[in-house]
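INFO  loader      accepted 1 record
INFO  loader      residues=410
INFO  predictor   begin
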Amino acid sequence: MYEEVQSDISCFDKNSSVVKLHRQNPDTGVNNYGYRLIDFCRDNNLFIMNGRTRGNSHENPTCKNVSTIDYFLLSSWMIQYVNSLHIHDFCNLLSDAHCAVSLTLDISYNIKSIVDTPKYVEKIKLWDGEKEGLFINNLEEHQLGDILNLINDIQTKQTISQTDVDQMARSVAGSFQINSYNTFGTVNFKFIENSNKPPNWFNSRCRAARKKFHNAKFLYKLRQSFENKQRLKLSSKNYKKTLSTEQNLYKLSKLKQFRKLKKSDPRKFWKFLNGKKQTSTGVSAEACYEYYKTENDIPIDENITEMHFNDVGIDTTHINEEINGPILWSEIEKAILKLKNNKSSGPDMILNEHIKSTYRLPAMREIIIKLFNIVFDTGLIPADWSVGNIIPIYKQKGDVTDPVNYRPIT
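INFO  predictor   done
INFO  writer      dumping tokens
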């Protein structure tokens, strides 16, 4: 134990011209918080840098010009890199009571070669309304014929498996993807990067307040008089207030526009959401998976007795024929006509526009009606139809690590 302490203290000798073992503190007050800080440093082999190195920390307090409560704590091996520590003049922009504290380190490092990451990612452009006619014409007859032959072969099987159903659905999705690529080409999606561009709410009033603050700061640095200090204090307070006001006004106006945008222009609405910089959530993907996979489960109540139509004297012959009969084209066409445009695709990359523009083709019509009836008769749903990308949106309340406090958007 003694050797460890001696080893830690010997680190001061490596930088003795800059860092001193004995500390000078302008704040002579002692309380329980100070004792706890000393105990914390002693238990973790940490050293307080305030008052030990070059700079003005040995004579300037950090809070309200009275007490020192803002510290830099370093482990012993970091002491050799210390250059200076400065307590800066109080500024309303940074805190209501605390002064900014900065620590300068002298560290040499090797600049490693930076691997250029692609700025764009290429994706298939799924739809362009101006090329709808070309999209229909490009849907090759032999391609639809191959899909139809595949479905006919599967229909002749005595037992249709899940793999067969998945193969049919994926062949249809693949034909749409190939046709989209041949017709619309690709589009480059730009990776969102950090930018030094000022935020949109930073308007002319903010720039004017900033200019006054910088001028006051320059004058105080040039001549540290009482008048210049008061001018700096007032200008920084006004600058901070202006920033807060303009930011809140901008948020309110954008919120009103955003609420209207969801109904008036869904494409623009989702383009805005998808264009926002993604930040990592506080909840893990595994926790979300375990929670969402049972979210829609209905608990079974053993006290509820099962009731049949026959129990109340209803003739179910006609009902069964209607429910269990084959899916008619008129029913499919009615559902297709209700599909809305400008909706995002699922993992299969099929858009509503793909179906609405091609369902009248004889081969596509036959593919759709046979596929739906096979699914209906076997009860096997293509795996891609039940898969979606869930984005958890935090509800702005509760524990950020609990998936219950996230709204799933699929």
